[in-house]
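Notebook entry, structure prediction.
Reason for the run: the old model in the group folder had no record of what sequence produced it. Starting over properly, with the input documented here first.
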Amino acid sequence: MTDAQTFNGIDRLERSDDWGVYKTLLESTKAIPWKINWQTKQFDYIGPQIESLLGWPRDSWLGAMDWIERIHEEDRARTADFCIRQSEQGVDHEADYRALKADGSYVWIRDVVHVIRDQNGVTTDLIGFMFDITERKEMEDQVLQLNRKLEALAKQDELTGIANRRMFEQTMVAEWARARRNGQPLSLLLFDVDYFKNYNDHYGHVRGDVCLQRIAEAISAMPVRSSDLFARYGGEEFALVLPETPADAALQIAEKCRQLIADLQLPHAMSPNGSVTISVGLCTMVPDITGDHVAMIERADEKLYRAKRNGRNCVCA
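New structure, fully documented this time:
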């Protein structure tokens, strides 16, 4: 049996001698039956289950405005406008919304509505059921939050907690396109830890991981814009994407990063400096239609290796 057949059956039963029996059956279910006279916008009937679910006295549900005012304010306009529009057009519909309880809390409701029309197609009555779907909504929210966490983890470097190579690549594609569209400069810093292989050989890989974590924490603590992205590029290499940043400003940031790591004074017995340092390669471009972000990464990488050939612990732009 379809919903429409059920609703039409209820309407016929309400006018029959058997209504008392079926009314008892309806009021024994968890679903809350109701009926509104569309001409007067008044409730002809609402199930007594409404009191146990929402706490409002059954006799306080007089008309459509009582229903509207007991919808959560964030859902009220959207839900009321949709239901009124569908009802006036004679279209059966469903609506999910948060219904306010008498104690100020709320539950999620699914209202399933059947529109009754006369022979001229004019809406005369609405018959429906309210279902408590709070538990289902909570489960959906948990799944949504879990999916968001999984999505975030997929873009996060496991060791350092910063963005990973995948997130870096996606950001470079997007920022390159945006910079080309707006004619704005895009800057990229690539840097890695000087003599890091020697560090791992001397201190071990566990200490090496801690070293990378300390570097990531230090750079992450720098004040940056929400559009900037700091990522682990691979191994001991890191990247800092700086949208709408000209070369002179990017050079200052690069030098600040280099100095920040030097100031940590992390011991490095296998480095001529005696402590951990980084070398930085910087590239700034205003993208045009002939190039792509890969060429920019390659140029920043070239500058990084030039910084290493120049003695390390320096910036090459």
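Summary: The mean pLDDT is 89.
The old model has been moved to the deprecated folder.
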